[in-house]
């Protein structure tokens, strides 16, 4: 599956821009954030284009659940499951959303601040 | 469905402890956080007991997706969709997990800090 997302994530999914991929299957890719906020900072991105979580609907329910399970598995793979980690969707300016293509942050590897 | 969760969330689900509920169906409840980190701070909680996101498995995929969709709907209902909001699972000490019963934070209504 490819995407027509006109964002850096769309370019990465189509192989038009580089990224350090840590996971890929038919539905998702996961990459390292190029501006990590913690020792481990990954992004889980659906190949199908959804702008942000506010645009997700019933038809995306399984995909969203899979994003969480893949995020948790990647945390396990990165060795941060025991210490702890955070899975976060940002939506809109108040949350600091930068790229308008849905992505789940997987953040950990160190003590994190408050989630707000 | 009830839960055998021996946490404050278990007590709230069973009606043994008070909370300001903003949503309830067969699978989930949502309440206002009693120590809000922002103007809007809700928690979406599955009635079935899952300790945290690291304990979720394939059988929970739809439930996790539903938690995201309900979180996004509640943000819409609270009038914070346009400004923006954050949906967050914390897992473990590094992320500041306090109650060992899975819960999704819905946080917004004001400019938020970094998610780490």
Describe this structure in words.
- Two copies of one chain form a homodimer.
- With 116 residues, the first copy, chain A, is of the alpha+beta class.
- Chain A has a single domain (8-97), classed as HIT family, subunit A (2-Layer Sandwich), CATH 3.30.428.10.
- The first copy, chain A, has two helices and five strands; from the N terminus they run αβββαββ.
- Chain A has helices at residues 8-13, 61-77; strands at 21-24, 28-32, 40-46, 85-91, 104-108.
- Chain A has a five-stranded antiparallel beta sheet with strand order 1-2-3-5-4, covered by helices on one side.
> Which strand order do you get reading across the main beta sheet of chain A?
1-2-3-5-4
Shape estimate of chain A: globular
Total domains of chain A: 1
Q: Mean pLDDT of chain A, nearest integer?
A: 95
The portion of residues forming beta strands of chain A comes to 15-25%
**SSE pattern of chain A, N- to C-terminal:** HEEEHEE
Instruction: Give the helix/strand class of chain A.
Output: alpha+beta
